[in-house]
Amino acid sequence: MRYLVIGGGVAGTTVAENLQIFDQNADVTLISATETVKKVTNLEKKGEVINCFEVIDSSPHHLSYRFICGLVTNCDFRLQTVTLADGKTIPYDKLCIATGARPNVLFPSIPHVVGIRDTESVQDLQNRLRNCKHVTVVGNGGIASEFVFAAKKCQISWVIKDETITSVFVDSVASKFLLDSLKDRTDNNCKPECATVSKRQIYSTVIKQKNASILGSALGPDWYNGISLDGTSSTKQLEIEYGCQIGNVTTCSDESDYNLKVELTNGRTLYSDVLVSATGVIPNSDLFKDQLTLSETDQGIIVDKRMRTSAPNVYAAGDICSIPWKECENWKQMRLWTQALQQGFYTARSMSASDDEVIEPDMSFELFTHSTKLFGYKVIMLGRYQEWEGCQCFFRISPGLEFVKLVVSNDRVQGALLIGETDLEEVMENLILNQMDISQLGESILDPNIDIEDYFD
Question: pLDDT tens for residues 14-29?
């Protein structure tokens, strides 16, 4: 069987590697537009679904499958061929599209406006920062949050449309925990592990109506490690512009000390050397828009429960795809490295199976999980960790050290947000997957003196 994979990101390489495991006679070729591919390393299973790992750029010389560096310009799904920019045509029996997504950069035609997506864009930003005094950052997800944390020796204006930071991932309570820690470390240069526990807080609240201002990304975990994001100032200063957006960006005159004039919708004007645009991603589906069914919402390639597209023998995985189906309420699609890995594994299993073989989505589609770093903290997200009307939330907070949030409905844990070294991820995963009744403990479930792992054994 001739398998062809387009895309050298986590989803694409995971598909290629696992096709050789599921099909011993697989003839696998991977096409990448770049000379390196993304590879998952130091994979550590923290439970049935939770995985912690690192992502590195890897040379294709040691790959177990055939590698072609080239740009795909056409796919003929009737003849089952793919054409490259150099005119070369590659046939296939089954094809997987894993071309990922690109940054949704605001004002892309303006010089000194940059997006962060891959190693090259990070290196470009690093070079720009060497002569930078002031940076404007727009966006409220993982990339924006981690840049704000990692950048040093510059003034930063962080523009967010919400009333709390990092709202793509966390609620207002967790946002305050992270913001307080960020301020402490910005002011005192202290690390999370050096923080002292002043008080453990355990309390609960019932969500009656969701606040509209509290809302429920693609470089890998720790993408900024080993990279200097230093400007030219002697210190780091952070100012957050809440509840506004960027109205207009223009270049400054040669006489100005700055490169950009940034006008905000709250009436303020900022003068910056660089604008970092981190406002989400757009699936790279333009090449397929006239041949495959795309989502009207996000333009991702729609796939069925076997990750098949609307064309025969064509599959999609990772940021490029849009999944309209759900196995359960405690799962949702987000364009993250974690799901690229999960989808890559499942797509390889589906592609290697015969058409009449029954293939059901695996456990990774039963529970949303994501492991990442935010402001230097380990962060684990499980299930429906963002509150909804009628749920109950339990919190345990040790300022500067850890943050634990459980979302409970009908005496069953439906979601959890774990920040810091809580060591609770496996037991919380079990509680959610097995839907155990916790009514006997109630909010005491987060009492640090209770070993809940033994309690529910």
Answer: 999 999 999 999 999 9
C-alpha distances in Å from residue 54, one per residue of 171, 222, 424: 26, 8, 21
What is the value of pTM for the model shown? 0.86
Which tokens hold the place of 170?
A: 């966390």
The tokens describing 265, both together, are 């919708």
53: its two tokens: 């790992």
Weakest-pLDDT range from 33-47, 123-137, 230-244: 230-244
Rounded CA gap, 344 and 7, in Å?
11
Task: Tell me the C-alpha distance between 16 and 36, whole Å.
Answer: 15
Residue 251, strand partner residues: 260
Q: Beta-carbon neighbour count of residue 337 at 10 Å?
A: 28
* 26, 51 contact by CB (below 8 A): no
Amino acid identity for residue 300 in this structure? G
pLDDT in tens, 38-69: 888 888 888 888 888 888 888 887 788 999 99
DSSP readout, 345-387? HHHHHHHHS-TTS-----GGGTS-EEEEEETTEEEEEEES-S-
Give me 411's structure tokens: 């005496």
**Tokens 């795909």, located at residue:** 72
The Cα 341–Cα 318 span in angstroms is: 8
Q: Which residues does 384 contact at the CB level (< 8 Å), separation at least 6?
A: 329, 330, 368, 391, 407, 414, 415
Is residue 372 within 8 A of residue 339, CB to CB? The reply is: no
Beta bridge partners of 102: 282
User: Residue 413 in 3-state DSSP?
Assistant: strand
Tokens encoding 331: 């799962």
Number of Cβ within a 10 Å radius of residue 41: 10
Q: How many CA atoms lie within 13 A of 84 on its CB side?
A: 16
Q: What is the dihedral of CA 33, 35, 39, 41, to 10 degrees?
A: -160
- pLDDT given for residue 236 in this prediction: 79
User: How far, in Å, CA of 15 to CA of 226, rounded?
Assistant: 29
Does residue 192 surpass a pLDDT of 80?
no
DSSP state of 428: H
- The 3-state DSSP class for residue 392 equals strand
Say which residue the tokens 């004002």 belong to: 107
Place of tokens 């003849």: 79
